[in-house]
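Regression check, magnesium ion case 399:
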Amino acid sequence: MSTTISDVKVITTQPAGSRLVVVKLETSEPGLYGVGCATFTQRFRPVVTAIEEHLKPFLIGREVTRIEDIWQMLMVNGYWRNGPVLNNAISGIDQALWDIKGKMANMPLYDILGGKCREAAAVYGHAGGDSPESVVNSVESFIDQGYRYIRIQMGGYGGQSSGIIKPEGALDGSYFDPRDYCRNILEMIAYVREHIGDSAELLHDIHERLQPIDAVQFAKDVEQFKLFFLEDPLAPEDLEWFTHIRQQCATPIAMGELFNHPREWQPLIAGKLIDFLRMHVSQMGGITPARNAAIHANMYGIRTAWHGPGDTSPVGHAANLHLDLWAPNFGVQEWCRFPDLVYEIFPGLPEVRNGYMYPNDQPGLGIDIDEVLAAKYPCRDEVIGWTQTRLPDGSATRP
Ligand code: MG
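Current build output:
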């Protein structure tokens, strides 16, 4: 008798900074279930509705083993396709089905994917501060904990400018000055490199905050400091400009946490215009499309560096880790260091020691959720401030 989907539950919780969405897929076999990440933290309610009201009626009674068919049909069954809400909803189902498949096979997911290429995944941490000196202090504390890859930011995304002169009546918001940012960050990166030498690989995230031509200039200027990669120098809306960066410097480029559709990353891979794929695995639709993108990128010498901040749920981090362990073209994994409470709510959340993230070798994703404890930390409704980004003259811009 085949094993079928008997129930689809959506669990929301906010034990730390981000509102998390996790799917729990139950099956006709008592005790057999899977979990998947469906976290779109800024718009989590429509994802919950999409799963509960639209995907669940479609899924009940379907065979759990048919992951590919279910993924393909979920993507086209609504006729209009893609987008962060639908892709995250599908990811929750997809990851839970992979988790179930691993449990049925009594294998960790990395074994289902093809087996380990490495014992653990090298991670990078987020160092930061308000001055070059404080960034160096932060970097040194990561080095002391064994990290060999460290992202350096100063003053948050876009930096902090003290001398912004706004027009009278300017609206509230998170203001920054892109040209000032370029100058300040270059000075900071030079300072950090001078102080730590080659004792760690350095990364920086522009967070697509620059005009395209300023991003080209920045990538050229920062080349001398030999970053491990420069992240999101351009927005998905400005993909054609990657050619100009490539023509002018050898700064390694990472891109992709905002991508929705394969047509966005395919030309960058085919053109060898980037070096690291940075997609948010739930945002692209789960493990199924991430596996395909990794295989495709490998043909072109491009590595993976899946998005892994606090707005990827612990279940999503576990999915990232299994992809990292398997992919021959794994590069590095972003890691956000969850507090102990999150480890209590998500038993099996991967541990990081000496700059490496380790699997626990349990079947499937190897992670679970304590629903009772999660319910004690409900999601808070709030209007998000940091994404209300404005340029010095008050105009709205990308966060
Ligand atoms: Mg980023």
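Comparison notes: The chain has 13 helices and 15 strands. Residues 205, 207, 231-232, 257 surround magnesium ion (CB under 6 Å). No diff flagged against the previous build.
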